[in-house]
Amino acid sequence: MSGVRVTADKDTAVAVVTLDRPARLNAIDLAMRDELVAVWRELRFDDSVRAIVLTGAGERAFCTGLDRDAEVPQPGSPYMADDPLLRVGPKANDLWKPVIAAVQGMACGGAFYLLGESEFLVADPTATFFDPHTTYGMVSAYESVLMAQRMPYGEVARMMLMGTAERMSARRAYDIGLVSELTAPGAALDTAVARAAVIAGYPSEGVQGTVRALWAAKEAALAAGFAQAPHLISLGNLPGDRQAELFSARRPEFRTR
Fold first, then answer.
1. Range 145-160 average pLDDT
2. Which of 219, 204, 222 is nearest to 96 (CA)?
3. Tens of pLDDT along 24-61?
């Protein structure tokens, strides 16, 4: 596998899944998407793994969403629009082992598909969170629905509407509850692994049942939002060539709050 790296410690029963395209800021192309789906499905059957840490390679980014160069084929019917990242997360692949995200650097756009399906986030002080969709004439639909389950409404609305003009700092994310723990610089991964090792030491049936129960509390809202998402995207997205123009033309300054 070229875009995803998996290591497992049999003593602690913790696996680390690393998004491993640092030269592309760990952006997800279709091959990497397929690798992640395969990883989640393999981990369902690996009873030696009881908890999982998800992180990104390099210091600059956890993940910057869908790779801009990815070509996503679409059916001709407006009723069958395909979202390339809709099945990229652990819950979408029926994995009910706990997943802890270790975030360093940027997490934006399609990264929220992964963060939204993690149990909790541990962050380095360099972590920043933002969503560029509106800046480039796109609807933030699935990302907004997922993050609305993790953040106060006003905070997620501000993030999604401000686009690339503003980034949420790790401190602000911690203050509002998106991030559960701030670490020392460079310590997010080790901290997440330590927390995962504690959870992995508990009986797996109770842990996985708790994960499933927690997700059940959000499923109805997610299903309703996801049902609307493809129609909102179809209505609100600019044509691809206009998006590309905005992407090429704009290099806006941003503030971090």
1. 97
2. 204
3. 999 999 999 999 999 999 999 999 999 999 999 999 99
The span from the first CA to the last CA of the chain, in angstroms, equals: 37
DSSP 66: B
Task: Give the span between the Cα atoms of 21 and 186, in whole angstroms.
Answer: 19
Domains in the chain with CATH codes = 4-187 (3.90.226.10)
Count how many residues are written for the chain: 257
Contact 62, 18 (CB under 8 A): no
Q: Which structure tokens are listed for 147?
A: 């993050």
pLDDT at 53: 98
d(CA 93, CA 114): 12
Phi and psi (nearest 5°) for 224?
Answer: -65, -45
- What's the rounded mean pLDDT across residues 236-243? 89
Residue 123 CB neighbours (<10 A): 29
Of 80-94, 102-116, 157-171, give the lowest mean pLDDT range: 80-94
Q: What is the side-by-side order of every strand in the sheet holding 106-108?
A: 61-63, 106-108, 128-130, 166-169, 255-256
Half-sphere exposure for 256 (CA within 13 Å, toward CB): 12
Residue 54 CA to residue 159 CA, distance in Å, equals: 23
